[in-house]
Amino acid sequence: QVQLVESGGGLVQTGGSLRLSCAASGLFFSSYAMGWFRQAPGSEREFVAAISWGGDSTNYADFVKGRFTISRDNAKNTVYLQMNSLKPEDTAVYYCAADSEARYSGPNTYWGKGTLVTVSS
Predict the structure, then answer these.
(1) For residue 39, what pLDDT is reported?
(2) 115, CA 20 to 30 Å: which among 45, 69, 91, 108?
(3) Cβ 19 vs Cβ 78: under 8 Å
């Protein structure tokens, strides 16, 4: 079965950094585009960043451009999200997603259970 396990969340002060990891198993990792999404309390899940199958292309939400970096290591079946200059509004549960069509919806999408990031003011 497909499993995505996020790690690296925690409590950090404003301006600090965290590196999230998502370890994938049960799928041919390089056949999947990978993404990070987040959901703040009382809000809908929103797109954060995505990376293509081979890691040659990335996309970011406007609110994280210049601060967050997504990367992947296909040899380790792992995708990362380096988060710098964190703000209180970045506080959310961060989810890893895998999608063979880079759509992040429907039957081709797999989701992790999330890791909590809390940024104190």
Answers:
(1) 97
(2) 108
(3) no
Bridge partner list, 99: 33, 109
Residue 26 phi, psi (nearest 5): 80, 10
Paired strand residues for 12: 119
Q: What is the mean pLDDT of each run of 10 residues along the chain (121 residues)?
A: 96 98 95 96 95 95 96 96 98 96 87 97 90
CA distances from 63 to 46, 59, 81, 89, 92 (A): 11, 12, 14, 10, 14
> Would you call 89 helix, strand, or coil by DSSP?
helix
Q: Give CA–CA dist 13/51, Å, rounded.
A: 27
- Please name the residue that has the structure tokens 């009382």: 42
Q: Six-digit token pair at 44?
A: 């809908």
Locate tokens 């909590």: which residue? Answer: 116
